[in-house]
Design goal:
InterPro entries: Glyco_trans_1, Glycosyltransferase_grp1. By secondary structure, the protein is of the alpha/beta class. It contains 14 helices and twelve strands. 41% of the residues are buried. The model has no long low-confidence stretch (mean pLDDT 94).
Length: 353
Amino acid sequence: MIIYGMLQTVTGGYIYDRKLVEHLRESGDEVFVVSLPWRNYVNHLLYNFSSALIHRISALELHILLEDELNHPSCIVLNQRLRNEKHPSIISIVHHLRMDEDQTACKPLHVFVEQKYLESVDGFIFNSRATESSVARFADGKPSVVAYPGKDRFSSNMTENEIATRSARKGPLGIIFLGNITPRKGLATLIRTLLLLPREEWTLTVIGSLERNKNYSERILDEVRSNHLDKNVIFTGPISDTEAAMHLRKNHVLAVPSFYEGFGLVYIEAMGFGLPVIGTSAGGSKEIIEHNVNGFITAPDDSSTLKEYLRRLNKDRAILQKMSINAVQSYQRFPCWQDTVTKIRNFLCTMNN
């Protein structure tokens, strides 16, 4: 498997890849993980001209080459070389396409490169129907499997009585944001929205690394400090699953108004704790969130609508309780990790045969 950085990174995509590697090894398969250092886009492209990478992959006796699609800028020439030889099946694990979140002036170049990559592989593993549809625009008809991420990273066993007690608890609405602090995740939108609400009506707990995009994180921290929100907003940084579960258990709602989510694993995980979820219409969140049932869906960067949904949950705790119970019930219909990785391995076996 080819990835950037460390397999132990705590984000939805890396958790997915890690769970798959663990299952393959437990099943008796030999798995090599090739980790390429994180660099900027141009340097990622230069990996295509690395003879060391091409020789390293060619020297392995592989039946399947798995590539996290995040690595697409670095694998185009490698894949073309392999396809010109007797090569293993090249399977791309697609969490979301870069082009679907890209808002830069270089987007035409990024789209061209990503399209060439999608054409260079033999099959796909998708984390959602939305991701499958995105890829179908450029590489339709190739073998693939849709395998939702597993829901059971946390041990969540909230009862309806616990949910009712939490919903009726007097005090501000407890909002949680769970995700690394990057522009795509929409934390700036959430904080801008909360500035429109009385401060006594809400608290915000932000769980996630501030290191992925330091300039953006510093702007977020400056926004909080300049508006004297230090008592309302808590930044935990990266924390253990046990600590994250504690925060999920005591808060009321998850709000991650991303500009794009290929799926949104954290939405399901929060529903396991009876938290209604607020996400956006961009990407795969609609496969998880039923609007006005277990959460709300807004347009990206829509502070006005987001404000109204948060206000409604705070003012009407009966609605909060009902949506919280619906969230737990929705959680039950999604697969556990064992189901997900077994489905993927079965697909890989068909590709090997």
